[in-house]
Write a structure and sequence with these properties.
Layout: H1 20-36, E1 38-44, H2 50-63, E2 67-72, H3 83-89, H4 101-110, H5 121-138, E3 141-146, H6 153-163, E4 171-178, E5 192-194, H7 200-210, H8 216-226, H9 230-239, H10 244-249, H11 257-270, H12 274-286, H13 291-298, H14 307-311, E6 315-318, E7 323-326, H15 329-338, H16 341-354, H17 359-369, H18 375-390, H19 394-406, H20 411-426, H21 435-444, H22 450-463, H23 468-480, H24 491-507, H25 513-522, H26 529-538, H27 541-557, H28 565-576, H29 585-596, H30 602-619, H31 622-639, H32 642-659, H33 662-676, H34 682-699, H35 702-712, H36 724-727, H37 729-738, H38 742-754, H39 762-775, H40 778-789, H41 798-814, H42 818-835, H43 838-850, H44 867-877, H45 882-889, H46 893-907, H47 915-922
Parallel strand pairs: 1-4, 1-5, 2-3, 3-4
Antiparallel strand pairs: 6-7
Helix pairs in contact: 1-2, 4-5, 5-6, 8-9, 11-15, 12-13, 12-15, 12-16, 13-16, 16-17, 17-18, 18-19, 19-20, 19-23, 20-21, 20-22, 22-23, 22-24, 23-24, 24-25, 24-26, 26-27, 26-28, 28-30, 29-30, 30-31, 30-32, 31-32, 32-33, 32-34, 33-34, 34-35, 34-37, 35-37, 37-38, 37-39, 38-39, 39-40, 39-41, 40-41, ...
The structure holds adenosine-5'-diphosphate and magnesium ion.
Length: 923
Amino acid sequence: MDLRIADESGAPTGSLVGRADELLSTHRFLRQAAVNGGALLISGEPGVGKTALLDAVAEAAAETGTRVLRAAGVEFEADVSYSGLNQLLFPLYDAFGELAPAHREALRVALGFGTGQPPDRLLVSNAVLLLLRATAVAQPLLLIVDDLPWLDRASSAVLGFVARRLVGTSVGFLAACRAQTASFFEHGGIPEFELQPLPAAAAEELIDRRFPDLAPAVRRRLLSEARGNPLALLELPSALTGPQRLAAASLPAVLPLTRRLQALFASRVSRLPEPCRRLLLLGALDGTGDLGVLLTAAGEYDLDDLAPAERDQLVHVHGNSRRFAFRHPLIESAVVEVATSSELRWAHTALARTLVTQPERRAWHLGEATVGPDEEVAGLLEQAAHRILRRGDAVGAVASLTRAAELTPDAVDRGRRLAQAAYIGADAGGELTNASQLLDDSRRASPGGSLYASAAAVYLLLNSDGDVRTAHRLLVGAIESGDHGYDADDPALLDALHTLLLLCFFSGEPAAWEPFFAALGRLTPEVPAPLAVAAASFGDPARTGQAAASRFDAMVAGMSDEVDPNQIVRIGIAAIYLDRLSDCRDAHWRVVRLGREGAAPARRHLGVLLHLCFDDYHSGRWDEAAELAEEGLRLCDEHGFRFVALYFQYVQALLAAARGDAEASDTLTDAILRFAVPRGARAVEVYAYHVRGLNDLARGDHESAYQHATAISPAGRLAPYVPHALWGCLDLVEAAVRTNRLTEAAAHAAAVDEANLAGVSPRLALLSAAASAFAAPDDKAEELFEAALALPGVERWPFDLARVRLVYGERLRRLRATARARTQLRTALATFELLGARPWAERAANELRATGLTKPRTGTRSTVLTPQEREIAELAGSGLTNKQIGEKLFLSHRTVGTHLYQIFPKLGISSRAALRDALAALG
Ligand SMILES: Nc1ncnc2c1ncn2[C@@H]1O[C@H](COP(=O)(O)OP(=O)(O)O)[C@@H](O)[C@H]1O
Ligand SMILES: [Mg+2]
């Protein structure tokens, strides 16, 4: 059988198969963009045909007289600031001259065509927009960006700005990205469509066109395994025949398709001769497709060594243009995946030696190739940082400088580089009007004095495009090279350590905590109590939470009149995973009031608001949680705290999921993931999975709930240094039981039991006892459920408790203990209704109905409101705040809140916005 594909270039032979509808809609987009501008994102799994579709659109656009500009992100390429924009806009270089001088200079400097004042991001963005507009006057323009998430960070940010402002121009923006990959590109408001796998008939056509001689059985199996993915349809046949069958047979069939394809490519790459593999590795890590670079870096190897990969259709070589390309990005990933760490270092070193005229790339490769301290490499990274800064990318410069500091052998030099990074970082959110001034300032600063600047820089970095790893590096470096002598009373040091605690938490990596604990170990005379307790409760509470809990109680007993907002927030942080936030409510409210009066710093005001939100959520004060989250988000907006806003979005998403507004909840978690993932904020990513899991349970998608719960922590283990694994433990067990993964459920319940969470907090005691009950076989379940419900103080966590009752009630009904089932279900239903947890209330009501009872008429719409409730509801419905209503009726706003809390379930609604309609319905 001939497995060679008909067209050597890899372009689809003839037209695309089965994409008539997609082509029609993209053509419609093209036509519209040519007259009125617009942007469109195409997403889809790897191999589904995004690039093929972009190629077809590019061709069609050119035929209809639109000028096409293209660029593509490459996974392993160095993040060279603005290299993507340079690629995209290079053909328009001559038109730069038509821009006003300020814009022209900004663009020239950013894209590396000249030197001058470092341009501000906004100026560059506007310059690009104006350039595109001006160019499109003569001829419509279409920008096509493939693999958008891999574009460099600075270009992504600018394109995100530009793409949302094209309406009214003749410029179109079309980009492709893998489904669910996050990037620094702001998607907000840009229409997105997900390219689906090919329909069955088209898949068959594609197969028959390329492999007309397949045996029927092989063809059938292929069609079923490829599930309409064109890349799989084209690649799996080779795995089903000849020597490659063996490799494919060893792949577990349960792997997701993408993983399977990459594993298949990996096995093909592994079988190539070593010289060939090394060339591929250079190609993948260089990412530019420049054959010249590849061959120079390769030294003793030459073009002939690449032939086996070419024969196996893994790469195309275009000798004339001296370029080469991987057939698909999954092949690049496979090449890097199979490389050993010493091969990776060899390749980076070889590329660094080759790229002498490109100092940024060179420095980056050296940085990747170096493990221990190395002054030469550190010096090059520092120089590169200055170049990056001169092109206006502060965040890129900080990343390069902190890496430089990390590799610096000499302590004084390290301190100096860190100070520079801190000063640049501290300005990252603002305008870089005078970079040389910044550098001068940092030179004068003593390394020790940079601790405050470093902590400030961390916040600015996180709130712009900075990633957690860079921020962590920066702060660890600043602490380790400071002249504080590890004095436990040094306020700058304490502030830095508390900030580092959060960074370690965000990173979600156990290794990130090592320098933190090392610094705590050196503090003299001793670690202050709030820091020590937070370290134990916030780091790995599954293992150290119990010890933290008793220390916390002792600490709080002596601190009832604490007034320092810093201290209150720190104690609150220590309380979160010990479920002791209610012990801090009064102190927290004091800070909220100070904050509202402008008498406490916004950061502290936000901290306490968040803690109150968490406490409110767990203790069932959901309306207050919603109000405070709103207050928090407003404040974040005002102060540009984009990172902190994620927390409040998390709270909103939790409430939306619990109350059955799945759409709002999904929109929020999308936004959270888009921000958190590219920044490496794993803990925040975990928040999103927690919400998604809850949402899935609410809507009965248990498989997805299981996937989300195990993305937080694997079944059978509480992932170390992932405190949220505790909050999600019951979700995991419930999802496992409902998807019939009884072994996993039992293993997880056992892990939770072993961790002795009951010793950490009464709420965790409930979750942990309930987990055992959920996972237990029928003959043991009742006793365990009863034990869970009999735990002291369980009524303090109404939502958790009602969920336990619901599952217990379901179990009892199955065991035909109808009367007792009803009792549990009725109680659960009442709580869910009170909370406004609509989907859960529905589930409880359905179960109750299944026991032969109709839904009780309590707490439903038919209940009339008391006259006072009616009055409050009318006022709230007319748009007054609780405070305003309170003033009118001489009630405290808290009392108003309490009334509304009872009114909502009576009206069967869960938000203020629904009041007006509900009242109208009452007549
Ligand atoms: N509709 C189609 N008809 C024929 N071939 C296709 C079609 N869609 C994709 N292909 C081929 O499948 C392979 C993978 O497609 P590609 O566009 O690279 O996927 P993606 O960019 O989504 O990862 C390529 O070889 C491409 O030519
Ligand atoms: Mg592609």
